[in-house]
Amino acid sequence: xxxxxxxxxxxxxxxxxxxxxxxxxxxxxxxxxxxxxxxxxxxxxxxxxxxxxxxxxxxxxxxxxxxxxxxxxxxxxxxxxxxxxxxxxxxxxxxxxxxxxxxxxxxxxxxxxxxxxxxxxxxxxxxxxxxxxxxxxxxxxxxxxxxxxxxxxxxxxxxxxxxxxxxxxxxxxxxxxxxxxxxxxxxxxxxxxxxxxxxxxxxxxxxxxxxxxxxxxxxxxxxxxxxxxxxxxxxxxxxxxxxxxxxxxxxxxxxxxxxxxxxxxx
Length: 266
Fold this sequence. Notes:
This protein is α/β, with parallel strands linked by helices. The protein has helices at 11-23, 49-62, 64-75, 81-95, 106-128, 149-159, 198-214, 222-228, and strands at residues 3-7, 30-33, 41-44, 132-133, 138-142, 165-169, 174-179, 182-187, 190-192, 254-256.
């Protein structure tokens, strides 16, 4: 009978869908998050860490690149990513490590584009992210199209190993918290930090003034600038704002965490 799988919305849960598909010797018609409406009969997939790890390690035995594609495909948040990743994993089991070079296959090509998009988004945000000094540490806000904090973490922890900083992803409601040699990404529903001090405001003003003075009026090309620096990043960049860029609304420290992070096999 036609069956759709439902899962908890985590990467570990999706890997358990793969596990159940092979143990039940069937291919689901769809993979849906819990609560999504469907006309199909559903099979609720339980997220079992041991099952997720077993699938993850089996992919690693094929190729580390396959694991990376699955992980970044998950980070992409594209529509129907579950089905795309599930189909790719089946192809990986069939063709092995060479599956990542099969770009004429529609599923592989779709995942390749998603993986590339995630990498590009992380690379751009590493360049365009602006920290602010709130007194207790450095704070930055981003609004990416996909999940990028896990890909940005290594860059900033290596660059600022002795600093205390926080990068808040408003789109995906999560934040990277770092204090010397300890980093953690946690779900965050709401975040407020103290208002910036006078010194920080002064440096912001100096940076904006430098940006204005250094520009050559006769060579201004807004379209070219938007091509290299997409406008969707400007809200949190100091040079494009008269108010401190990337600054959450002033107030007292308050952090509300969401549910525990989902299983991500390592």
